[in-house]
Each structure stands twice: as structure tokens, then as C-alpha cells.
Amino acid sequence: MYEDKLILVFVTISILCLSIPLPVTLKGDLASPSWWDPDGVSNGHDWHYRVPVQISAGSPGDSVKIAADFGSLLSERGVSGTFAANSVRVVSSTGNLVASQKFDDEHYMGSDDDSGNARGDVSFVLEDAAPVTYYIYFDIEENGVKPQPNFPDPAPVNLVGDGDFEGSPPGTEDPAPWVGGGVDHPLAAHYVVSGSDPHLGGSVAHSGAQSYKIGWDYAGFGPSAASNKMGGYVYQEIAIPPGGAILSFCRRMVSYDYANYDRFRAQISSTSNAVLQTLVEETAPPGGTGWKERPWKYFTFDLSAYAG
Q1: What is the rounded distance in angstroms from the CA atom of residue 135 to the CA atom of residue 279?
Q2: For the ranges 26-40, 125-139, 170-184, the one whose mean pLDDT is highest
Q3: Are strands 49-55 and 132-138 parallel, antiparallel or unpaired?
Q4: Are the beta carbons of 241 and 23 closer than 8 angstroms?
Q5: How far apart are the C-alpha atoms of 8 and 264, rounded to whole Å?
Q6: Domain spans, the chain
């Protein structure tokens, strides 16, 4: 006989576009056009350095994210001093501040990064049709404290449809644009759920009200050897733009007992179903019989290798 038990309850899923189809070049330049200065040279606050961002493709409203190493840029110019993180400003081709922009001092190239190391991700919303050149202005603390920037954060472009599974009622196996599936059995779960977990309590949703449930919802002996293969899946086809993207999702695992064949797996596959990369593979929580869990966990992965 076969003892089977695994429930996988998850997720919110998103794939955020890192940048519009570029390429982007980031390099020092002190030539034309005229220098941006909101209150005139030598009056008020002055910015002493800038780099051009050359955008080869894109439309107004597209999100752009640039990994900028300001420490290296200053070093290349022979400038000594402390980079001022609050000095970063993005200026459009018309010479005006971009309305929606942000300098993220805690992320670099889309990954966690130490703050205060003179590098980070600069993001903004494109206001002109490409090809176009924008400028990132910055400075050092020795040139005077700059006002704290106060811009609306650029909204990232989420490539995933219905990533929180809130768009379809509970019980939906194929919550468009997702495709769900698995073994057809009354105890095999692969559908949208809401409410509380019947075994351990707590919401089945990480945020919002719903998630997608996958697994074999039964504590006890399965009816046949096939019960060891009970489960399900859900997937969505996504085109990763040339600029790359970041995948993020959350999962919760609930299990009645432990077996190394009870597991959660997240993979990147081609449209021909070839597995390109296994991102996560976890077994059920260890221990004896009785309901237990691996609590909600957040994962993030850079999908730039699959761009284009």
C-alpha cells in the first residue's frame, strides 16, 4: 500500500520586466546638450556629473531599469569623494526631470545589494519614443547636500497575467491565462482555492484572498500505486523581452508525513516542454506523521538568460 499526503498551496507569481528592449549604454559625457540646472549655475543646488542613457527602442510609458555603478563612474573621472545617493536624477531628452523615477540603493542588476556602496538600479518611465537619449545626473556629498528626491515610483511591467490568482472563482482549474492540470482524481488538487487551510488553519493565500493549490489532499493510504503520482501543475507561457525579467513567487507546503518523493518543483520549460532550468525542488517538511508545513516563502530569479 502507498501512504500519500502532500498538499502544495501557493502562490502569487510575477515576472517583472527589467527594461524595455534596449541595448543601453552608460558612460561619462560632459558635452552637449546644455547642462540641466533647476536654479541656474552656482545658485542653489548644482549637479556636477552626468551620464547619457542611450535607448534604442521603446515607447512612452515603457519602464526602463539601469544598473548604474556610480563609484566606478566617479573613479574613471578621477573624482574623489563620497557618492551622494540622494543626488540621482533622470532628465529626459527635452531637458526636464522625468516625472516617474527612482534610485534603488539596495538592489543592483535586479538582485539584493548592500546600500551605501555607490551603485544601484535606476528606474524610470520613458516619456519619448526611442531612439532617444536621457541623462542621469549625480554628485558627491562634498559638493553640497541635495534635496531629497520625491518622485512617484515607476510601476514595473508585470508580464504574468493574474499572478495572484484572484481573477477566477475557487475551483477553477484553468484560470486564464494559466493552464492547470494533473491527475484526475477526487483527492488530487490543481485548482484555485480560497479560505482557510483545513488541516493547519491560516489563509491559503499569501496576500489577497486566493492561491492555486496543487497536490494530493489526503492523509492515509492511497487506493493504488498511482496515488504516489497524484498531483498537479500550473503554467503560463511568457515571452521574456531582450532587456530581461525577474520572476518572483511564493509557496506554502502542507504535508501529513514525510517522503522524499513528495515535493514541490518550479521549472522553466520551453514551448516544446523541454526543461531548461529547475529553479526550486523541495521535499515535504521532515518529521513523523501529523500535519505540518513549510510556511510561505518568497523566491526570486533572474530570467535574463532566456531573453529574446
Answers
A1: 37
A2: 125-139
A3: antiparallel
A4: no
A5: 7
A6: 2-16+161-237+244-306, 19-143
- Give the rounded distance of the alpha carbon of 79 from its chain centre: 34
Per-residue pLDDT, 70: 93
Rg of the chain over Cα atoms, rounded to whole angstroms, equals 25
204, 229 Cβ separation under 8 angstroms = no
Three-state SS sequence of 51-98: EEEEECCCCCCCEEEEEEEHHHHHHHCCCCCCECHHHCEEECCCCCEC
Cα distance between residue 308 and residue 111, in whole Å: 21
Q: What proportion of the chain, given as a percentage, has pLDDT over 70?
A: 78
Assess contact for 117 and 71: CB atoms under 8 A.
yes
Distance, C-alpha 30 to centroid of its chain: 34
Whether 37 shows a pLDDT value over 60: the answer reads: yes
What pLDDT digit, counting tens, does each position of 127-147 carry? 888 888 999 999 999 998 888
Residue 142 DSSP one-character state: G
- Hey, what amino acid is at 291? W
Mean confidence (pLDDT) of the chain: 77
pLDDT in tens, 148-162: 888 877 766 678 888
Please give the Cα distance from 225 to 248 (Å, whole number). Answer: 34
